[in-house]
Amino acid sequence: MLFNSIIYLLFLLFVVITYYCFPQRIRWIWLLVASIGYYISFIPIFIALLGCGVVINFFLAIWLAGIPEKKNSGSLILIIFLNIILLAFFKYFNTFFPDFHIHLTGTGHFFPSDPVNKMILPLGLSYLIFTLLSYHIEVKRKNIQPETHIGYFSLYLLFFPRIAQGPIERPQQLIPQLHQIHPFNYNLFSDGLKQILWGFFKKLVVADRLAIYVNAIYNNAEEHNGTSLLVATFFFAFQIYADFSGYTDIALGSAKLFGFNLTDNFKRPYFATSIKDFWDRWHITLSTWLRDYIFLPIAYYLSNRLKKESYLFVSSQKWIYLIGIMITFTICGIWHGVGWTYLIWGLLFGVYLSYANWTKDLSKKIRKQLHIKKTSPYYVFYKILLTFILVLFTWIFFRASSLSQATMIIGKIFTSSGPVFFYSPYDLIYGIFGIIVLMAAEFKREFIPEHWTILYNRYPAVRIAGIVLIVITILLTGVFDGGQFIYFQF
Amino acid sequence: MIKTSSKIFFRFIGKLLLILFIIYIFDFGIGKVLKVFYLRLEDGLYGQITYCIESTSADVLILGSSRANHSYVPEVFEEGPYTCYNAGRDGSFVLYNYALFKAVITRYTPKKIIIDISPDELSYSAAEYERLSLLLPYYQSHPEIRDIIDLRGPLERVKHISSVYFYNSLVFQVVRGTLPNGKVKVQDMKGYQPLQKKMKYDKIDTVKIDPGNTDENKISALKDIISTCHKKNIDLVFVYSPIWKITKDGYCNQIITKLCTENGIKYIDMSNLPDFINRPDYFADISHLNEEGARVFSKMLKNRLKQVN
Amino acid sequence: MDEKNLIEMKDLVLNYIIKEYIDEDEEKITYDTALISSGYVDSFSMVSLLVFLENKFKIKIPSSKATPEAFNTVNKIVDLVNQYIK
Asked: Which tens digits make up the pLDDT trace of A440-451?
């Protein structure tokens, strides 16, 4: 079941109430059962695949831990290889075997791709594989002991709040929590509910509303002028943010109801002052995963290999950064999807970051010459705006259905202008309303966190008023006819 | 230990219930306010729906989708003392019209009802069920249409706990509507919306309409409309208005023709008449007539109806 | 490792970090300031920091130990370095 559905709320209610009725020692079993049930509600067939993957990896990790550190690299590579094959198989199957048909009964209507003609990507497989890889790497580095209880191991991987779209949880974060007893914690539970509520707001009021306009324009891009395409791209930037971070809020909030703290994935990314800052705020568990397991190993390896101070008049540090970043973001792009557009999307960030790194000293010099303080509000505003525009450009590739469509859209944005298209002006009005409310709340959190709190205000009347207002706003302006979480297919 | 934990738990449940209750109170109150202001909307899309459901007493009522809305000129069908109203609506098909029909019938009995229907309208379309949301503001005061709106989904009734939900995606329109503006009031146009465009055309397409999956709800709806019209002695006519596509026969007309023959209902198929297929300038786009074409069509239909009688 | 040497090491590391990564108009950094998690030091710049440490103290730190957590404060860095000094 999708997160933004009444069924999910009922499911959650049922699981939560029964969870606290069970004796604390066996609650993990109930959570595991619920998680498997949740997964089955999507596609029953793949639970078998999932089960095999979980069991095999469980034993692989124990085997890996038994090998001394100096000699276990080869084993790790084998394990990584096996898991990546599985991921690649599902992700790229349709590209290489487009004629293969698979018929699944009872698959429901929520997958963007036609389930009859394509092999469906099992829900959350990409997230699962990355979680597994991080688990094995930490075992290999002797940072953790492998989990010896297959029940807890399964729950670590299949915990339902995070199974669909992450966050990618490190073993050190989640596994110890699974072993602990979690008595009913009033504050955490209340936090969880508030977070779920806000997640629903983002999803229903902002993401699903903007999706209507974005889909109308992008699915018919040839017919629309540059201005409409620009507006649609601008909307898409907020749609994808609200969609993914709304999902994350519901996931984190749900986990809190059971007493678990998962890692937050977002930190107000559109207030980032640089692309590097953006990736410290967007899909944080993915970017730290890439940093720790791809970028840093490559960078260290190169730094040991490149003995000279500089090559071609450029310092070897810069070369290391360039190579490391380009590889990392190539992987980032590919992870998000099959197709040139995702690859270009990732590479663009690589280019942005490399450029910033190579011109770091130059820009510092320029800033000093112009006597601009780093903390000056004008400078900060300029940097936020510039970063947003750079990211906006990359979203064109992410949303476009093909590279040629993306280039066509970019061409139109710069050449053809005209009136903004709408079927009804209210499509735009409700969309803009959602963006304004969301960004106002984020602005407050970013710049004036201690004041004007509503949901955490010390007066209960203010808190209750805030909750009532959010609920009524969702009921009045939310889209209830079923939108999709964009990151589902990963 | 356990005792205090339980106490905390129950205290929490108590607070939660209190908050839910407060939400319910506000929801109820705001819903009432919105209802008043919504029903006051006189023009635009919502004003027209309200007029049709609550006020019209036209002798001739035209139901259908955007094709009805843009093709039937009410003045043409008004003769002597008889009045006509065009209740066609963009994007709204059989089930929506069925609801309108039921709401109207509880108030008065029209003399004649013309339903514009295309054969491919009978297949299942999820979008059409979503479109029934146009009728949500009338749910509470019109029990006769509740069954139809509930077809939107099994959990639809749960959403109806909220009074405010019925005005979902309407609040800005309601605010706008209460501000003074100079739009044409709905009675003046009698529901008809003329299109001025002349379409850019190429070659006319030939389309074979597949059987597809027929939506049984729609068939039942049509059957119920037919039997009610029989009981109340309403002259019911199904019309397939002109379309700039050659729709090949076969499945095309079977269901409707069968339904009409079995029940003695007139079905007038004017979809591919040479008078229209050879006049692309009568069309605003391939599915809709423009104002010129609509007048020609309306006059032609009126004559046909006289002949059939 | 006596107190004086420890402080010398910490100062060495602190000064390098200030010179390389911190702007003059930014706040003062101490031995306990969170460097990476508060964004003073780019997590990607850890590589050059590692090179500096290995060259300066003539040690070899395995890259798997050179994590953002281990490099987050001057105190932690010096602890890590001390693990590998013969």
From this structure: 999 999 998 887
